[in-house]
Amino acid sequence: MIKKLFYIDYPQEHYEEQLHRYRCAYCKIETTVINGRLEGHLATCPYRIKLTAAGYQASKQAASVDAVGHDADDFD
């Protein structure tokens, strides 16, 4: 499987009357919800389907952001 740290090469469109707000042109999910993750797109999104079929998968780091929570004191 091929991995990328972030998946940000999908076509985007902006929300009307909102200057800095964008979404995937295919599945219409907001870019801040997608957050660079392949699994942030809908399972039916053509972008996600195309990359998954080509052998891409989400990186472990992007997929498990909430799984790791360390404080500096944990390593002292």
Low-pLDDT parts are 61-76
Shape: elongated
Q: Mean pLDDT, rounded to whole units? A: 82
Largest sheet: 2 strands, parallel
For the secondary structure, the number of strands is: 4
The chain-level structural class is alpha+beta
* Fraction in helix: 10-25%
Tally the structural domains: 1
Sheet with the most strands: spatial strand order:
1-4
Helical run tally: 3
> What share of the residues does DSSP label as strand, in percent?
15-25%
**How large is the radius of gyration?**
15 Å
Question: What's the helix-strand series?
Answer: EEEHHEH
Report the span from N to C terminus.
36 Å
Q: What's this model, at a glance?
A:
The protein is 21% helix and 16% strand. By secondary structure, the protein is an alpha+beta fold.
Q: Describe it for me?
A:
- The protein is an alpha+beta fold.
- The protein has one domain (2-64).
- Helix content is 21%, strand content 16%.
- It contains three helices and four strands; from the N terminus they run βββααβα.
- The strands form two sheets. The protein has a two-stranded parallel sheet.
- The longest helix has 8 residues, at 46-53.
- It is elongated and about 40 Å long.
- The N and C termini lie far apart (36 Å).
- The model is unreliable at 61-76 (pLDDT under 50).
